[in-house]
Amino acid sequence: MRYVLLLFAFAGLAAAEIKVGIIGTDTSHVIAFTRILNDPASPDHAPGARIVAAYKGGSKDVESSHTRVDKYADELRDKWKLEIVPTIAALCPKVDAILLESVDGRAHLPQFREAVKCGKPTFIDKPLASTLEDAREIAKIAKAANVKWFSTSSLRYSDVCLNLKSPDNKGVITWGPGPTEPHHYLDLSWYGIHPVEMLFTLMGTGCEEVTRTAAKDMDETTCRWKDGRMGTVRTLRPYGEYGAVVFREKQVLQSAPKMRVNYGPMLKEIVKFFENGVPPVPNELTLEIFAFMDAAQRSKESGGKPQKLR
Predict the structure, then answer these.
(1) Half-sphere exposure (CA, 13 Å, Cβ side) for 172?
(2) Which of 16, 127, 189, 292 has the most CB atoms around it within 10 Å of its CB?
(3) CB-count exposure of residue 247 (10 Å: 0-12, 13-18, 19+)
(4) In a domain, 3, yes or no
(5) CATH code at position 21
(6) Host H or E run for residue 104
(7) What is the chain's alpha carbon radius of gyration, rounded to the nearest angstrom?
(8) Contact indicator for 179, 219 with CB cutoff of 8 Å
(9) How far apart are CA 128 and CA 189, in angstroms?
(10) How many domains does the chain have?
(11) Do 51 and 79 meet the contact criterion of CB atoms below 8 Å apart?
């Protein structure tokens, strides 16, 4: 009888929901993610984790941050019954894992410095940072503290990427919205990160040299891979649809005119990561994406001259 009770006890522990905390309530992602994780009736429900508390954060010099941070925090508190805490330090003991959601990529490094003291696995929403140096520093701090982390765009889990990803891809063109934000040095990191993530999802690592052509309504950034493959990202302003063309040895494949995106598949991967500590997107790939955007920025500033990844 005692043995049976112990089995039930261990089963209960295994089934216990992971308590998740949010850092940064200035993005619509915090509402969408809370619905998907906390509402079993949601069609995209990702079981196994529940958001229980949030720290507001916010950036006074970014309009899309300071105009939304309180509104979303109020909704999290009033509709979803989350506890709003005054500091990151106050959040740490209440949770098992962290969603670093601040819309301002510049805030991620200082906020992660605080969050890493928790020792909890952390998902860092796009963009990981606003510069290559900050991205590398986040990785360095995490390694020193032995804290597991990963970052990705939800577009990595779009139907386009899931359907067109293949080791047979010889070349890829992706496109998507490319609005910029003046406080982010890597201007592709603000919104262009989505089609950039799509490119690297479909092509993998190995980007070597980047050339960027900048125009008023769009930019085109082309990269040569070490094995000779070529990939291109076109960012459209102010906005535009997402899509991709994939070149294979005897095929050319194009995505549908309207791409279907939801956060459910990404949230399920995040929950798995919180459970096993294995990043579904390797940190090295994320850092190469930032090295790509850094080279693209330098190419733009040099009038379109090719630039090696640093």
Answers:
(1) 27
(2) 127
(3) middle
(4) no
(5) 3.40.50.720
(6) none
(7) 20
(8) no
(9) 8
(10) 2
(11) no
SS3 165: coil
Among candidate residues 103, 125, 147, the one where a domain is terminated: 125
Which residues, 6 or more positions from 7, have their beta carbon under 8 angstroms from its beta carbon? none
Q: In whole angstroms, give the CA distance from residue 47 to residue 67.
A: 31
Gap between the Cα atoms of 95 and 18, Å rounded: 8
Domain-embedded: residue 273: no
Query: Taking the CB of residue 146, how many other CB atoms lie within 10 A of it?
Result: 8
pLDDT above 90 (res 201)? yes
Residues 161 and 117 both lie in one domain: no
The answer as to whether 138 is a domain residue is: no
pTM equals 0.92
pLDDT tens-digit map of 8-52: 444 444 458 999 999 999 999 999 999 999 999 999 999 999 999
Range of the domain at 302: 155-264+289-308
Give the list of residues 6+ apart from residue 197 with CB closer than 8 angstroms, or none: 126, 152, 153, 155, 156, 289
81 torsion bin: left (phi>0), alpha (psi -120 to 50), beta (else): left
Token pair listed for 248: 């294979």
Task: Give the type of residue at 300.
Answer: K
Residue 279 within any structural domain of the chain: no
Per-residue pLDDT tens over the stretch 238-268: 888 999 999 999 999 999 888 777 899 999 9
